[in-house]
Amino acid sequence: MGIHFIEIDQTRKQGWLDGVIYGNTQLNKATSVTRLYDKLQQALKDGGKVVLSDENIMGTMETNWVTKQLYPDIQQNLLRLGQSKDLFGTVCITLRSPEDWWVSALSFLAQHGHNIECFDTAVSKALMSKRGWLDVLRDLMSVMPNAYIVVKEFGFHTSNPKRQLREFTGWNAIKDIKNIPKSVSNHSNRGKKILREQFPYSKYLSNQQLSLEGTATLRSAYENELEEISSFLGSRGRLLSHSPKSGLVTV
Known about the structure:
Layout: E1 3-6, H1 8-13, H2 29-47, E2 49-52, H3 61-67, H4 74-79, E3 90-95, H5 98-111, H6 119-127, H7 133-143, E4 148-153, H8 161-169, H9 189-198, H10 203-207, H11 215-233, E5 237-240
Helix pairs in contact: 5-6, 5-9
């Protein structure tokens, strides 16, 4: 039996998540949820194993930015999947240090035409939020209590997607998959160019470092949070990290 990958082409271009995660006024929500469940069931029968991948299942960058919080509506978004969410035995979530995450998020939003206030002020406001990754995981696990949670730190074997998939799933069949691109990066040169044009005096954009006091403190807090996450997951999940404090978990 093979592996069926349901990714952006299927979830957006082919409408797998229309009326569920993505709005479509022509579709009935209940019908859309049932349709998704039926399609996933069929994929399981046809492929044996299924990987569903779409970052907006957790929530959108726009919502994160408006609320200045990390995925505040992850519970509601997962509940939109209906009974489909119960088909998945494992959930993988990728995280990174908040100051890096917000810089990346704002770069993405700028690239897509969103007006952002003073860049450094924007990031500072976002970092004032007390909601961390541990809160996101608590929300996720409250909605999917039977799922095994794999928390992958950004940068963990980024250039080797096959290794990432194997670590995440534990499926030996991953080794036999061919034609997976090995050069993967979310760096947006266009987004950074737009931010430079909007905020030419930003120290972050000129020196490639965040112009905030206490960056070291933020990083240390993140390292401590990784330790908390590893402890919190217990037998219900594991952490894939290159952090010196959290250690490295591999298959």
